[in-house]
Design a protein that fits this description.
alpha+beta; Elongation Factor Tu (Ef-tu), domain 3; Helix Hairpins; conserved putative lor/sdh protein from methanococcus maripaludis s2 fold; six-stranded antiparallel beta sheet; 3 helices; 22 strands
């Protein structure tokens, strides 16, 4: 009975050994060598070509009228008539308000009469002086009297002219604050007058751009609530930097033939502060900062090669390369973080 039991035990041991050996044999079956290497990574490249690089500055500004005043009277008096329509165009020299000039007219007429009498007196004194019947002193007194009365007449006529308030320039007149019968003083505002063809656009720029803007340069801007782009031309630059904001004010003018631009509007302004012709630029993501400088990877004979570069102007998502690269070189612009010098790579557009 012991022999059959030993045979059965030996069979179990053999079966267990075969069970452990079969998986190893299966795993090595058909293996003829080492596993194949992974394919080279695919990268996107950009061929460098000289082009114009423009640096733009975005800032904010305010639309202003070309000319703007508050219309007031130079003399006090009662309003005899209002001769303009609110919100309408008025021509230069147009009569806006007439002040009651009854008293001023009377003063002018009195000055005319007195001046006429003085002229006759001076003429008589001239004849008498020629005949030796009066002294030079008497004649000088008559002449002086005439000159004083002529000056009083000119003053009366000037006051009379001020009774008519006229537009100093053509433009749009605003809402009036007076009515016929109102009593005006030099402190009473009658209305506003604005010339809005063209308009001015005032905006500020940081002091680091001093010297980079010139009179005659172009700007573009949009007003809030409108998507229409407008253009303007810089015509004046404040000659000093504001000590509080460390910026300076720039003024541009813009055509406004349809009067859509309203003074006081907020403007989003874009201005070109620098333009470089024949520049080489790469996407910002292609530049790798490193200790002591920067580098980019170029595609060369199927491999990624590192190039130390010196950068210049930055515009949005691009960087100017001023040293280290030449035109027609292929710069790698994707997968930068996985590259190392000499690594074999393939262009993304190449086939398998």
């Amino acid at each position: 009975m012991k022999r059959p039991r030993r045979v059965a035990l030996a069979g179990i041991v053999v079966a267990l050994a075969l069970g452990a050996l079969v998986p190893r044999l299966l795993s090595t079956e058909g293996a003829t060598g080492p596993a194949p290497a992974p394919p080279p990574p695919r990268v996107e490249t950009l061929t460098l070509a000289p082009r114009t690089l423009v640096e733009r500055l975005a800032t904010t500004g305010t639309v202003r009228a070309n000319e703007e005043i508050e219309i007031v009277s130079e003399i006090a008096g009662k309003v005899a008539g209002v001769h303009f329509r609110e919100g309408h165009l008025v021509a230069e020299g147009a009569l806006l308000v007439k002040i009651d000039d009854t008293q001023l007219t009377a003063e002018r007429d009195r000055a005319v009469h007195r001046s006429t009498l003085a002229e006759r007196s001076e003429a008589r004194q001239t004849r008498l002086l020629d005949e030796g019947l009066v002294s030079q002193e008497e004649y000088d007194f008559a002449l002086n009297e005439l000159n004083v009365l002529r000056a009083e007449l000119a003053l009366a006529e000037a006051r009379l002219l001020k009774a008519e308030i006229r537009a100093p320039f053509g433009g749009i007149i605003g809402l009036r604050d007076v009515s016929p019968g109102s009593y005006l003083t030099p402190q009473t505002r009658i209305a506003t007058l604005q010339d809005v063809e063209p308009v001015k656009v005032d905006f500020s720029i940081p002091e680091k751009y001093v010297g980079q803007l010139d009179v005659g340069a172009q700007i573009s801007f949009r007003t809030r609530g409108s998507e229409e782009a407008h253009v303007g031309t810089i015509h004046a630059i404040e000659p000093r930097v504001d000590l509080q904001t460390r910026s300076l004010i720039v003024r541009a003018t813009s055509p406004n033939p349809d009067r859509q631009l309203v003074p006081g509007s907020f403007a989003d302004v874009e201005v070109v502060v620098r333009r470089i012709e024949g520049a080489l630029a790469v996407p910002s993501r292609a530049v790798v900062p490193e200790l002591g400088g920067k580098k980019v990877f170029v595609f060369e004979d199927g491999r990624a090669e590192a190039r130390a570069v010196e950068t210049g102007m930055r515009t949005g998502d691009e960087v100017e390369v001023v040293r280290g690269l030449d035109a027609d070189e292929e710069v790698i612009v994707s997968g930068i973080e996985k590259l190392r010098p000499g690594l074999e790579v393939r262009r993304a557009e190449e086939g398998p």
